[in-house]
Write a structure and sequence with these properties.
- By secondary structure, the protein is an alpha/beta fold.
- The chain contains 5 helices and 7 strands.
- The protein has a 7-stranded mixed sheet, with helices on both faces.
- Strand 3 and strand 4 form a beta hairpin.
- Helix 3 crosses helix 4.
- The radius of gyration is 16 Å and the shape is globular.
């Protein structure tokens, strides 16, 4: 589902690749634990969307961009190759930002300024972030996070403190040796911001 790239330029290191499967499952547990610590957390109904191609994943990203506004935090969870970067690339196209959206694995974060006066896209790979919010603040991104749309891969249990309102996007792919491009994308809003957002429109 992820667009092909040069192995030397884009491939994650071996430790990242071998740990990814376990990390994905741990992320679900971390997210549940983080929300359990706040009994009054407001969660929207989960919206489950089946995506059958990289093109459709990009379209989903563009549709999601239409619902986003400055200050939104989107947390992406999914195994390597699930389609996180493809979704983010479509989101960036929908927001009308500058630059090619690729995996930020080696730089931790990339900032894509708006070409139309809208919010910048801050694309973060939190896999190697151990300090969560403190490390995010230390990245010196030269952009105001409250005025941007922040998309964080591998952020569960690490960056929830960035915002009380966030959108969790979990991408599950068919496992095993298969050419099946189908993905199941589950979107769940957390906080009042997402209580009346029309996430159901993305299912159509």
């Amino acid at each position: 589902m992820e667009a092909p790239h040069s192995p030397a330029a884009d491939a994650p290191d071996a430790a990242h690749a071998h740990a990814a499967h376990a990390h994905t499952h741990a992320a679900h547990a971390d997210a549940a634990h983080a929300d359990a610590a706040h009994a009054d957390v407001v969660r929207s109904a989960a919206h489950v969307i089946t995506v059958d191609s990289p093109e459709r994943m990009g379209e989903l990203g563009r549709g999601l961009a239409a619902l986003l506004r400055p200050g939104d935090l989107v947390m992406l969870t999914g195994e390597l190759g699930a389609g996180k970067t493809t979704l983010t690339r479509g989101l960036g196209a929908g927001l009308g930002v500058r630059g090619d959206v690729t995996s930020p694995t080696f730089v931790i974060a990339r900032v894509h300024p708006s070409l139309s006066g809208g919010p910048a896209l801050v694309h973060v790979d939190a896999y190697r972030l151990g300090g969560g919010l403190d490390e995010m603040e230390d990245l010196d991104l030269d952009v105001s996070l409250p005025d941007s749309v922040v998309v964080v891969e591998w952020g569960d249990g690490k960056v929830e403190e960035l915002s009380d309102d966030r959108l969790h996007v979990v991408i599950d792919r068919v496992v095993g040796a298969t050419d099946d491009d189908r993905r199941t994308v589950t979107l769940t809003g957390v906080g009042a911001r997402w209580s009346d957002a029309d996430l159901g429109s993305l299912e159509r």
